[in-house]
Design a protein that fits this description.
The protein is an alpha/beta fold and about 150 residues long. The protein is about 45% helix and about 15% strand. It starts with a strand and ends with a helix. The structure holds 4-nitrophenyl phosphate (4NP).
Length: about 150
């Protein structure tokens, strides 16, 4: 099983989701069976480590994002991944425009799939520290439910 998280820049939200899910899969003993990655719809930050603010907020909660490097989503990702989860509606629209007619990946909005009270993980890039905490809160909750789903699909 392979899961890809997608946001705009791949330096804030989707790297956070990658780090959180990987951590939770390790705790659940599923890390060997499920591959996790992240990508951005844009290419501005390709090759860069996650935003310092995302790294710091994640580190406070025990997630290490430092080894991650930003990449841009490609059409080939729709063949490689089983599940592609967008952080907001704009990401989802851009992914739908890129999605080939055939491809194995199921495409969905991350929070909506797990019935959180909101659909989107808000872009924290121009926000203060509070935005990064909110990103983590939303991602941690949805990731717990994603782990349950993945466990059931193995
Ligand atoms: P992300 O946040 O999509 O969560 O990685 C952003 C990072 C960079 C930019 C926008 C959003 N940017 O405009 O450079």
């Amino acid at each position: 099983m392979r899961v890809l998280f997608v946001c705009l820049g791949n330096i804030c939200r989707s790297p956070t989701a990658e780090g959180v899910l990987r951590h939770k899969l390790r705790q659940a003993g599923l890390a060997d069976q499920i591959e996790v990655a992240s990508a951005g719809t844009g290419d501005w930050h390709v090759g860069k480590a996650p935003d310092k603010r995302s790294q710091a907020a994640a580190r406070e909660r025990g997630y290490d994002l430092s080894a991650q490097r930003a990449q841009q989503v490609t059409r080939a990702d729709f063949s490689r991944y089983d599940l592609i989860l967008a952080m907001d509606n704009s990401n989802l629209r851009n992914l739908k425009a890129l999605q080939p007619a055939k491809g194995r990946a199921e495409l969905d909005l991350f929070l909506r799939r797990y019935q959180s009270e909101r659909d989107e993980v808000p872009d924290p890039y121009y926000d203060g520290d509070q935005g990064f905490e909110q990103v983590l809160d939303l991602i941690e909750r949805a990731s717990d439910l994603l782990v349950v789903e993945l466990k059931g699909r193995l």
